[in-house]
Amino acid sequence: MTERLYYQDSFLREFDAQVLSCEQEGEGKAARWRVVLDRTAFYPTSGGQPHDTGKLGGATVVEVVDASDGKQIVHYTSAAVKPGSIHGEIDWTRRMDHMQQHTGQHLLSAAFIELFQFPTVSFHLGKETSTIDLDAPSIVPRHLAEAERRTNEIIFEDRVVAVRFGTAEELAEAGIRKKVDREGVLRAIEVDGYDRQPCGGTHLARTGQAGVLLLRKLERRREAWRLEFVCGFRALATARNDYATLTQAGSLLSCGLPDVPSVVTKMIEEKRAQHGAAKRFEERLAEYESRALLGQSAPGATRIISTVLDDATPTYLSLLAAKIVAEGNAIALLAGRATGHVVFAQTKGGTADVGAVLRETLKEFGGKGGGPRDFGQGSVAPGADLAAILQKAREKLEV
């Protein structure tokens, strides 16, 4: 059985141990070594917290997991290590970050229980942010503001965080936030006078070491509410990045930081109005252009309108085609030079299958597209001879 040194001292950065085994897994660039020690300060992935990294002798520790028997801890390294004594070093930046996030999670989960009786059903410590899933009928801004403030109150009070051991019955009598059914001696993390929770993870020695906790995003996930948060140095980096983003936005908008939301709101409203006006103008333009094209067409049982437009967007081509075929007994063969987009349409109930014609014609020119009998659309590569494409389609239709 591997002795778990982090159980007693999460602040242990270096340790000495005996190598019990070292076996290679994989070959070539995929090779790594499975190392088992008699004792370790490396934390294995468990309970929503990722593993530690660091060094074992001259080898880099890239992953740490619990063995299938639950008794040994397996260290995967980048190189082989020799049997006998070895010195281990923990990546302290990573360890401290994980302790800040995990201890912050305990405090946040306890705050939601204390204030609203919303239990945490799962926890995930991510690379940039962490999340808890809360079992609650609904969560509103007031819940978030009060839980965030209460959590930071406990952080600022710099309470002692201690490790406690006991059976499930003993911990239950002492008062734990979440009951467990496991047998034997269990490990619990106790925040002085505030929270006690069974946990095998690494934690801070005092709540003040968490620095500050910031809530980020809330979203509904199946039966739970997923809440994103950051603690400690992550919170500092997040606040700095948010401020930099807001400062850049204020500079681009030529306004003060407090005015960014109102200026953006005004711009959105103006854009919406401009979009509506542009759509109305586009509608009128398509109406005018369709009549002009129909007026230039040769009379016949079915008029075929074929033209290449320089700056037409795919949306405008579809709108123009719809206007043309709405006049009755007409086929529109349209292409946009700027985009390489092609649209074929016919008056509903026409005898042709313009979708099939478009698909066959574009295939001959290296393009793709298709559609139902009365409407087809597709595209060709830049520089394709659009006039030749439309001429080829016209020939197919006139057969």
Folded structure, characterized:
- With 399 residues, the protein is an alpha+beta fold.
- It has 3 domains: 3-90, Elongation Factor Tu (Ef-tu), domain 3 (Beta Barrel); 96-250, Threonyl-tRNA Synthetase, Chain A, domain 2, CATH 3.30.980; 277-398, Diaminopimelate Epimerase, Chain A, domain 1 (Roll), CATH 3.10.310.40.
- The protein has 8 helices and 20 strands.
- It has helices at 92-116, 141-156, 168-174, 232-253, 260-296, 314-325, 354-364, 386-398, and strands spanning 3-4, 14-25, 32-37, 39-40, 54-56, 59-66, 73-77, 84-90, 120-125, 130-134, 161-166, 186-191, 195-198, 213-221, 224-231, 303-309, 330-336, 341-346, 368-370, 375-379.
- Helix 1 (92-116) packs across helix 2 (141-156) and helix 7 (354-364) packs across helix 8.
- It is elongated, with a radius of gyration of 34 Å.
